[in-house]
Amino acid sequence: MIRLIMADDEPFILAGLEHLMDWKGLGIEIVGSYLDGRSALEGILTLEPDIALLDISMPGFSGLELLERIEADNLKTEVIFISGFQEFDYVRSALLHGALDYLVKPVVRTELLKSLSRAKCFSESISSENTESRVPVYAPFFRDHKAPYVLVRSGAPDSESTSLDRLKTFSFLERLRSKIELSRRGFVFRNADDDFILFSGMSRLSTLVYMKECGEEIYRKNSVRICSVISEEFTSILDMENMIIKCREAYSCSYYASFFSLFEYLIPEKEVATSSVEVMKWREMLSAAILSLDEERINDCWSSFITEVASLRESRRDEVVFCFCNCLRLILDKLADSKLIIEEPDLSALMEKGREVKSYLELTELFKKEIFSIHHQLLELAGQKKTKEYLVALEYIEEHYMEQIGLKQIANLVGMNTYYFSAYFKKNTGENFKDYLRNVRLKHAVSLMISTDMSVTEVAQAVGYPDVRTFSDVFQRVYNEKPSAYIKRVRGK
Residue ranges of the alpha helices (H) in 184-239? Predict the structure, then answer.
């Protein structure tokens, strides 16, 4: 039997290492576990272990000081360092003094196995394939517990996957392991470096409530979010492999966790066909909103668009990034059709940046910045056009107010998109087109009422109102007086 000791000043790290793999199946006996460097040195000197798993930073003696003592005393113990630091100087010092390897917390099972397999005390034939039992580690649980079973994949969301957060997640899972094993309702295990919890005698909804409570507890204590994906209920160990695959695939939803502020997700029991119809609808509406230069409208459409994209729960992030880039491409094409020239974003560079961000929330912020960059450029462009298209539009209205003219007609006249022209017009006049045209017509109507003997009907028709009732209602709404009363008053009749 290969003899091993471990030392770390965090008890939950030691507990996690003890549960990390089947040590006996590897032919390894843990002969000592220590919380400080001095105790670890005593263990090395008295127990003469073959391997020592040592934290770099501990009270008493540091891991490097222990390695120097082992080297000076020519002891046979081989050292694997584990540390929360991934600094080159630490790694270099460790390896220069003869350390077998240097692993960053939280320790990954496959990486530790590779490090152990390089130890001299292992024969060349030992490998992870033939040293571990082929019987699944969760098999005994099925013998001792009855259906229904529910599988949970738990861990830190991608948006919170810093080294410190992964370490906190590791701590949480170790505490949860003790809590669950004491209750005898579940079993915590690792599969290909993913953390799973197997429950028995609990419905998936009660599991959801339980994991939500656990998640809130760890957030209060450690300020780190735990994302849990909960499988459907099943009845046999034969279903486990499929459930592990389903949970692993659905865990991609952790990409959206911070966006929805929802860190517990039930895997749908049946495949639900998702449609991109709503995404396409809001993409079109967002394009129109940008051309309108209405910031509030842009914000509303953007919010709806990104929510619809997220609701599809795309399993591949590349597809989500492509969807956002495609939306930008549509907007830029519409601007080009409207002959609006702006500085275009580099979509290829954005695609690469989008792939690198850790969460959907970060992705939305990245693209929102580009959306509003376009918006601000259009606002500047609208101001610059004032000396040309703006004056042409006002002149045309003044000359044709008595005709049935509309917004689209004048937008076409100045070569602008209707949405953009509407916003451009309001920016430069302080009024929307409809109100401005009304005021021009009423101004000329008042002039005719004062200077001519025309009837109300004749005045209405002369300023572009074929319906005298509509003219009367508009006039009264603006001047608080009926046109007939106004004529009588100003003409003295």
Answer: 204-222
Q: Is the peptide bond before 106 cis (omega within 30 degrees of 0)?
A: yes
Rounded to 5 degrees, what are φ and ψ at 53?
A: -95, 110
CB 315 within 8 A of CB 327: no
The burial class, CB within 10 Å (0-12 / 13-18 / 19+), for 326 is middle
**Under a CB-based contact definition with an 8 Å cutoff, are residues 21 and 112 in contact?**
yes
Task: Please state the φ and ψ torsions of residue 136, each to the nearest 5 degrees.
Answer: -55, 140
**Residue 206 has which token pair?**
């009660």
- Sequence-separated (6 or more) residues with CB below 8 Å from residue 275: none
Count the helix, strand and coil residues of the chain and give each as a percent rounded to the nearest 5. 60, 10, 30
Question: Which amino acid would we find at residue 17?
Answer: L
**One-letter amino acid identity for 464?**
G
* pLDDT band (50, 70, 90) for residue 124: very low
Q: List CB contacts of 95: < 8 A, sequence separation 6 or more.
A: 102
Sign of CA pseudo-dihedral 471, 473, 479, 483: positive
CB distance 62 to 71 below 8 Å = no
Determine the Cα–Cα distance for residues 77 and 80; give it in Å rounded to an integer. 10
| Residue 291 pLDDT greater than 90, yes or no | no
Would you give the DSSP letter of residue 62? -
As a whole number of angstroms, the distance between CA 243 and CA 226 comes to 20
pLDDT above 80 (res 475): yes
Query: Residues with Cβ < 8 Å from 303, sequence gap 6 or more?
Result: none
Give DSSP secondary structure letters for 142-166: HHHSPSPEEEEEEE--GGG-SHHHH
Note if the pTM is more than 0.70. no
